[in-house]
Amino acid sequence: MRLLTASSLLLYLRAKTAALGLPSPTKISTTGLKYSSFGSVWRPISASYSHGPQKMSSSASADPPTTQLEQLASMTTLSIDSGSLTTIAEYASTGLISDATTNPLFVSQAAFNGDPKYENMVSEAVEAGIAESLEESKQGGAQLREDLAVELAIERLAVILGREISRFVPGYVSTEIDPRLSFDTEASVMRARRIISAYDRAGVPRKRVLIKLAATWEGIDACRILEAEGIRCNLTLIFGFAQAVAVAQASGTLISPFPGRILDWHNVAAGRPAGADSAVDPDADDGTVCVRRIHSYYKRHGHETICMPASWRPSRGKGFELDEIRSLAGVDRMTIPAPLLEALAESTDPLPRMLTSDGGYPGRNESRDEQEIGEHICPNGRRMMSEKEFRYMMTMDGCANDKMAEGIRAFVSETIKLENAVRIKVQEAMKAVVN
Predict the structure, then answer these.
(1) For this UniProt entry, which residues form the secretion signal (predicted)?
(2) Could you list the residue range(s) of the whole structural domain that residue 28 is in?
(3) Residue 367 has what pLDDT?
(4) Contacts of 50 by beta carbon, 8 Å cutoff, 6+ apart
(5) pLDDT at 369 over 70
(6) Do 3 and 125 sit in the same domain of this protein?
């Protein structure tokens, strides 16, 4: 049993009353309210709420407008980006969130801080990693066994985390390949197969698992191999159109373009104010424009690859944190952090669909898009993009080239932090085994 915030419960009640055809509550009292866990589903035991003032007509009462979160969920599948399983559970209980992503580094840090739930997850991962390393490195020395144990423990921690998330959300869970392998196709494929086997043993259907790879040429090539084997892939660090098309041609399940980081780069390159001081019209936001073009290209040319943008910035600066999300309403999927989901839940303004299922969007210029694509990127897979074409187009796209390298460096930095934290646990456990 634990206390529940009013905002989280309000999300839940709005979803449930909407499903029953009842008016959405606008106010809620949580005095004495607690949550009870029944298996993997979180349900409120009791609550009192009101629908607030309603305008009456001679024929019928008018329902208050639904929240922007509800409106967005009706046209775009939503994923929550959170480091907390508790937060994921709360939002998943609303029925508005289908997928989730989180970071194993958060789990290891929480374990070091004494959270028993996460301590147990890390202990389980370390135990499995050591056991498997002893089996795989019988001919190697102590250092080899330790390095392999750390590598396997990190993988198992990611799978354990994915297993727990899968109990809250009905959709995809993503597990990342070590970003230091971003330029190694063979090693990436080997790791992906090992991770999927671990998910099989954990009882999570592989159709629900996305292997997350950086959208380098080698990562996309690994995606091509894995998708042919029935292993689904999420290609991340998408900053350019060439990457998006190459992934679609490789039959990737999903891409994660980062509109916020694209805007960051263009603001700096153009000498415009950035971050909280940004002052760009949402329809001219470089990140929004890029994602709209990708979405349109996929729909118009029959690609089944899912477009799921993540990483958001305020186009118009502080106070307009939802600009990019609202400008991309209607895209296949979105990954959104909890604070922005909360902001959407607090707004009842109308949220129009900006992207249509046939590829339409405001300001679309089909002839311009096709001219820019040219001979290098062919619709309907008539000719696959070659490696040399991909590398040339990435080099000529300053944003994609710079932000890809920056993103890999950031991911590697986080991975090293995780590795160092897990190594301490592995060393402690190995000493206990020896003694």
Answers:
(1) 1-19
(2) 1-47
(3) 57
(4) 25, 26, 27, 28
(5) no
(6) no
The crossing angle, in degrees rounded to 10, of helices 398-434 and 241-249 is 60
My answer on whether 209 and 327 are in the same domain is: yes
Section 319-333 average pLDDT: 97
Structural domain includes residue 374: yes
Residue 52, in any domain of the structure: no
Tokens standing for residue 114: 């004494």
pLDDT at 54 over 70: no
Number of domain units in the chain: 2
The pLDDT tens digits of the residues spanning 210-250 come to: 999 999 999 999 999 999 999 999 999 999 999 999 999 99
Say whether both 309 and 366 belong to one domain. yes
Higher-pLDDT residue of 384, 96: 96
Sign of CA dihedral 277, 281, 282, 287: negative
Cα gap 311→409, rounded to integer Å: 17
CA–CA separation, 174 vs 244, rounded Å?
A: 18
In a domain, 54, yes or no: no
- H or E segment to which residue 105 belongs: helix 104-112
CA-based radius of gyration for the chain: 23
Instruction: Report if residue 64 sits inside a domain.
Output: no
Residue 138 annotated as catalytic:
no
Residue type, 425: K
**Same domain, yes or no: 30 and 178:** no
Classify the C-alpha dihedral 64-315-293-80 as positive or negative. Answer: negative
At residue 314's C-alpha, the angle toward residues 308 and 316, to 5°, is 135
CA angle 358, 359, 363 (to 5 degrees): 130
- The answer to whether residues 173 and 261 belong to one domain is yes
CATH of the domain at 348: 3.20.20.70
Residue of 185, 310, 302 lying closest to 238 (CA atoms): 310
Catalytic residue among 27, 34, 117, 212, which? 212
| Cα 301 to Cα 248: distance, rounded to the nearest angstrom | 10
**This prediction's pTM:** 0.82
Residues 176 and 320 in one domain: yes
Examine the domain organization and report whether 163 and 247 are in the same domain.
yes
Distance, in Å, from the CA atom of 184 to the CA atom of 419, rounded to the nearest integer, reads 19
